[in-house]
Specification:
Pnp Oxidase, Chain A; Split_barrel_FMN-bd; Flavin-nucleotide-binding protein; nine-stranded antiparallel beta sheet; Pyridox_Oxase-rel
Length: 258
Amino acid sequence: MVQDLVYPKKKQNTLNRYNSRGTYDLSTIHHIINSISVLHVSFAPSPEDPFPVILPMIGVMGSFEYPSADLNEPLDCYLHGYVSSRLMRLARESGNGLPVCIAATKVDGLVLSLTPNSHSYNYRSAVLQGYAKFVETDQEKLYAMQKITDKVVEGRWDHTRVPPDNVEMTSTTILRVSIETGSGKIRQGGPHDEPKDENRTDITEKVWTGVVPVYETLDAPVPSATNKVNSLPEYIQKYVQKVTSENREHAHEAVKEP
């Protein structure tokens, strides 16, 4: 039996509070990263600047060296950005890679309890730490650009003008983050109230408790002013239906106790 791979526990990624909700499983963490539209990437701009920089970015897990690698295998995180941005410049200038932290969170439900202190969210979150390096070759850049484009809409790369021209290739920068370690945290289930409150009828008979499922819905696509394709392509229609259905199912499954 093959054992699931996990990220090593280090000082920076070991969970302490509610550690029963934690996971170091590669597959779970990578899936969270790939299922969330916007990643937040933080880095230290310079020793003189006391404040870290946090940027919303598009990113995806992958392996150029082993393109067929699954989410349960070691992967890099590819980030897309503009060539002249500070993050890209610092990564290019770094010798061994720029230390970065990548965070992703998806809310699956609003957990309404008897007392304010017990309110919570059902959620999935992941944090990765690693070293960002500038992708040098066009081959690896194209590999990453395709994965990032297909993260926006599955199959989109093959339905656009590809490959990008020289100007687009030059103005676009891809960072490859070699992951050192990571962790995930998942909360699911209903309210967890204190027995002292659950046994008081003066509270339980007047305060509604439960979970409001939360999920991202993709609405009907709206054509652009310059669009000349009369009918919506089937791959877009199927993607919209699939993602909305999967998100709704996950939010309702998250209401159940683990």
